């Protein structure tokens, strides 16, 4: 099955700086890579996703890049704000699976 | 409703007790998923329904775990003879399409087994 690894486990940045979270996956058949933001005690919320036919996708201050050859994908948050503080999860899915395989999460703290 | 609704929000069970967790998906969503999220970990897949059919239960950790969705809408996850290692947040997600695209998660049920 798929194995998704995520780094770092914790990340602290100053407000206004950029944050980068990296994930690797093991199954070359995986073709869908969403990112979820989970605030304390709340539901995971989809913030951006990318499919394997695209190398990069941007949505305002958030971008995701995908390197299929190396089997890694990254989340980039620019101009970070205190409300970006949360746990971020990457995930992967492939056509043969019914579910998402999640990373272990990154706790992002944006220091005002 | 506007989102995926789960109840109860919190459940404390004595070891050995049976529990039932409910999920109300978004109306019209075909797919329904249950995940288990241990403290400090990412969600781990338990089971998947497409309408009323349970197409994948490969993630259920033991035969004490049972899920159903008899009318293709509301789903119930039942855990029999709860044990301390069952303590976790149980998340339900629904999707308009099949498989794992475009999930909307519920807020989860935090189960604590004492």
Mean pLDDT of chain A: 94
Share of residues in strands of chain B: over 45%
| Amount of helix of chain A | under 10%
Main pleated-sheet profile of chain A: 6 strands, mixed
Distance between the termini of chain A: 41 Å
Number of helices of chain B: 0
Shape of chain B: globular
Helix count of chain A? 0
Proportion in helices of chain B: under 10%
Flag low-confidence runs of chain A.
none
What is the gyration radius of chain B calculated from CA atoms? 13 Å
- How does the helix and strand content of chain B classify structurally? mainly beta
Low-pLDDT windows of residues of chain B: none
- SSE string of chain B: EEEEEEEEEEE
Name the biggest interface: A-B, 23 and 25 residues
Identify the quaternary structure here.
heterodimer
Return the average pLDDT of chain B rounded to an integer. 94
Order of helices and strands of chain A: EEEEEEEEEEE
Count of DSSP strands of chain A:
11
Please describe the structure with a list of short key phrases separated by commas or semicolons.
heterodimer, A: 112 residues, mainly beta, 6-stranded mixed sheet, B: 114 residues, globular
Task: Please describe what this structure looks like.
The complex is a heterodimer of chains A (112) and B (114). By secondary structure, chain A is mainly beta. Helix content of chain A is 0%, strand content 54%. In chain A, the strands form two sheets. In chain A, strands 2, 4, 5, 9, 10 and 11 form a six-stranded mixed beta sheet that branches. Chain A has a five-stranded antiparallel beta sheet with strand order 1-3-8-7-6, with no helix packed on it. The model of chain A has no long low-confidence stretch (mean pLDDT 94). Chain B is an all-beta fold and 114 residues long. In chain B, strands 2, 4, 5, 6, 9, 10 and 11 form a seven-stranded mixed beta sheet that branches. Chain B has a four-stranded antiparallel beta sheet with strand order 1-3-8-7, with no helix packed on it. Chain A binds chain B through residues 4, 6, 32, 34, 36, 42-46, 89, 91, 93, 95, 97-105, and chain B through 4, 33, 35, 40-45, 48, 55-56, 59, 91, 98-108.
